[in-house]
Amino acid sequence: MYDFQAGEVLLVDKPLQWTSFDVVNKIKWLLKKELGFKKIKVGHAGTLDPLATGLLIVCTGKKTKTIPEIQDQAKTYTGEFELGSITPSYDLETEVEWKSDTQHLSLEDLEKAAEDLSGEFDQLPPIFSAKKIKGKRAYELARKGEKPKMKSKRIQVFQFDIREVNLPSVAFEVHCSKGTYIRSLAHDFGEKLAVGAYLKSLRRTKIGAFKVSAAESIESLSAKIKAQAAE
After folding, report:
1. Is 49 annotated as catalytic?
2. From 49, 91, 116, 122, active-site residue
């Protein structure tokens, strides 16, 4: 039985098109509706974009105090880059605005680009991100057609592996520090190869020692909360 007020660390497999706040709000709503909480703290430990799936850690009650500690841990992602195309958002949120040929690229070219983007370096976040610029989210400005000036941040890519190549798509796995934008990594990967690239799909598989294989769907978690309420 869950003790949500004392605190729970819930591992959720975030579905496609849901924001991280959608998941938090859904859980908070369930706790209030099914278990009768008038007030309960619920928060997530690290945002996932709506177009990404995978591990989202949601903390309740007193466990919300552990959120900064969880956020600081390294993350692992799998996904696909689409080479030979670029989008303003570095993913599929916006339309493709430029294309180029990729058939000349070899596996060695791809692995060299991955190697060049490994280690510690300064990364520029996408303009379509939740970074705050003068009190406003960068994506809010970008969606209005503005081009907010982003500040680079020191990040570390511990491991960057090319898993499968089916040009123009490239499957990858990345193990990286907190604050790393995989969309920016996709964009930079395309620049290294001089063909452009955007993030086609993304799944977070690990945060520190927490694994997506141990995570639950929203439906499964909802059913457990309703079952607890019925006891």
Report:
1. yes
2. 49
